[in-house]
C-alpha cells in the first residue's frame, strides 16, 4: 500500500470517528478556547429565564435557582450526567413530605426538565454541541398515574353548597365553580379571561391556556349572563383587562383558588383528606362528556391538541364546535345558541 493511500485511509477513519462522536472539525480545532467562552450557570440562567414563556419560567424558575445555588460558578460544560443524577437525588430526597406527596418524583422530573430546557437553549445558541449535552443522558422519573378522578354528583353539590354559604365573596366563588365545571378549563385559562373574550350572541368564551393553546368554548346562556354581570359590577371598562375580579376591582389571582379550597376543606373533611382541587372539576366534566358523547368530543372539550399518544386517527376524527355545544346543552340542560342556529 502506498503512503498516500494509507494516509487517505487514516483520514477516512478519523472522519468516521469524529462523526460518531458528534464532533465537528470546527469544534475540534477550537479546543479549549470554546470552553473558556462558555458562560457559568449564574450567568446563563437569567438569559434563558428572560427568553422563555411565562408558563415555562413559572414551572422551572425554582429549579434553576437550585441549580445556581449548587453550580452557579461552574460553566455549562462542566457537570457530568452522573453529577446531574446526584443533584436530582438530593432534590428528590429534600422534598417536604405532604399528604399527597409521591416521594419527590415530581421535583426530580421537573429538575431534569429544567436542565434539558437550559441545555437546549445552549445548543440553539451554539454554546455546546448536542453530543456535549449531559441532560440528554439523564432519564426523568416515570410519571405515575394521577390520583385525581371525577367527583360524584352528590359530592359536587356539597362543594357548591359550602362555597355558596361561606366566605367573604360567595358570589365570586360560585361563579368560579360553575365556570370550571361547565368548561373544564384550567385555572390559568380562567384567570386569563378578558371582557373581549366573551361572545354573548353565540354564548362562547375564548380560552387561552398552557402551551399557547387557544379555543372558543361554548357556555350556557346562564353562565354568560353571570360573567357579563360580573364585569359590569366589578370591571374597570378595559376590554383587555382581567375579567375575574375581587369586590374592590383587583384582578383575581391563584391565591383565591387556594383560599376557596382551604375553606371548603375545613368544612368537608373528604375534600381536605383527598386534596380535592379545581383540577378535579376538569376530570369530572371531561369524564362525563366522554361517557356520554365519546372520546373525540371530550378531547375537543378539553382543548387537547393532536399531539401526544392519541394516535394518528385523532387528527381525522376531530369534534366540531357544534358537537361541543351539544355536550354543553346536555351538561347544563340549556339549549345552546349554536344548536338553535344549526
Protein model, in words:
The chain has 342 residues and is mainly alpha-helical. It has 2 domains: 13-137, DNA polymerase, domain 1 (Orthogonal Bundle); 153-341, Orthogonal Bundle (hpI Integrase, Chain A). It contains 17 helices and 3 strands. The protein is elongated and about 85 Å long. The mean pLDDT is 87. It is 58% helix and 4% strand. Strands 1-2-3 form a 3-stranded antiparallel β-sheet. The protein has helices spanning 3-21, 25-30, 32-37, 41-51, 54-71, 81-93, 105-124, 153-164, 170-183, 187-191, 221-234, 254-267, 269-274, 278-293, 295-302, 321-332, 337-341; strands at residues 198-199, 204-208, 214-218.
Residue-averaged pLDDT: 87
CATH top level label of the largest domain = Mainly Alpha
Q: How much helicity do the residues have?
A: 55-70%
Beta-strand level of the residues, as a percent range? under 5%
Distance between the termini: 83 Å
- Shape call: elongated
InterPro entries: DNA_brk_join_enz, Integrase-like_cat_sf, Integrase_catalytic, Integrase_recombinase_N, Tyrosine_recombinase_XerCD
Protein name: Tyr recombinase domain-containing protein
Keywords: DNA recombination, DNA-binding
Organism: Asanoa siamensis
